[in-house]
Amino acid sequence: MATDAAQGQTAGEYIQHHLHHLQKNFAFENVTQTSIIDFGLFNADSVFWSILLGALGCWLLWLGARKATSGVPGRFQAAVEIMSEMVENQAKGVIHNAKSRKLVSPLALTVFVWIFVMNAMDLLPVDLLPIGWQIATADSHAFQRVVPTADLSTTLGLSVSVLLVCLVYNVKIKGAGGWAHELVTAPFGAHPVLWPINLLMQIIEFVAKTVSHGMRLFGNMFAGELVFMLIALMGGVWAWQFNPLTGGFWLGVGHVIAGSVWAIFHILIITLQAFIFMMLTLIYVGQAHDAH
Q1: What is the tally of helices (H) and strands (E) in the chain?
Q2: Pick the catalytic residue: 119, 216, 243, 260?
């Protein structure tokens, strides 16, 4: 329920409060202690929940592997095996180098599980963890966002990581000289006059793929988070104005129905977005194996 909205906040103030991150300023003195190196603000809540949920995802995969048996699998083992086979089949269709798949397939599986559990945080009640954080810090205005993929810095960080993997495989598969030759000769040809244009097009392609990779996930999860906040506002009115004669009762009913329907639909979204990010990771790494 939107308890904050009932404490004197308007709907706009309530949403703005929930869209603020817990931020910390990271700075330290250099070795000569003559100046301060300031890295600026970073979103501490996104970092914390990303690491925690990443560890949770790895633990779940490890647990599935640890409990694997040659007999009839249990439900959890069957689910892990289905995910593993799904990722492996997708990787085989995109990356034809069996040696590369030994690393890329587990990487893609980890990406899928990690993004799924981060997306799934959106299914928790909007005020549950933020209010818990306010109680723990004794600060009624403390900020806390718990969906890391609704933070652009998180999704772009993931997409940049995928870019680095692609660059490594470009050099590994084609060699430094072969990749350098490709950068200046594709897509328009090997004439020296076209080298600057080809290089510019290659840079634009890498930047566009990386930005769109991160923005797609961020946009969908941010929009879903906003919808949950709007639905929570209905619950706030119902919780503090429980009077069937004034219509508050029906807002409460609408809050429960709308929240349940959107949560069920959102399960599809969080799964689909994790799958799309994983598939694009495989496709981009697969493109690094292709010669122009």
Answers
A1: 8, 2
A2: 216
Residues contacting residue 140 through CB under 8 Å, at least 6 positions apart: 7, 134
216 part of the active site: yes
220 in active site: yes
Strand locations in 113-175 (E): none
**Exactly one of 105, 119, 159, 220 is catalytic; which is it?**
220
Per-residue pLDDT of the chain (292 residues; tens, 9 = 90+): 444 444 557 778 888 888 888 887 765 555 555 555 555 678 899 999 999 999 999 999 999 888 777 777 788 888 898 999 999 999 999 999 999 999 999 999 999 999 999 999 999 988 888 888 888 888 877 899 999 999 999 999 999 999 999 999 999 999 999 999 999 998 888 889 999 999 999 999 999 999 999 999 999 999 999 999 888 877 655 454 555 555 556 666 777 788 888 999 999 999 999 999 999 999 999 999 887 6
Q: Which of 89, 140, 212, 260 is catalytic?
A: 212
What predicted TM-score, i.e. pTM, was given to this entire model? Answer: 0.86
Domain edges within the chain: 4-289
Note whether 249 and 242 are within 8 A (CB): yes
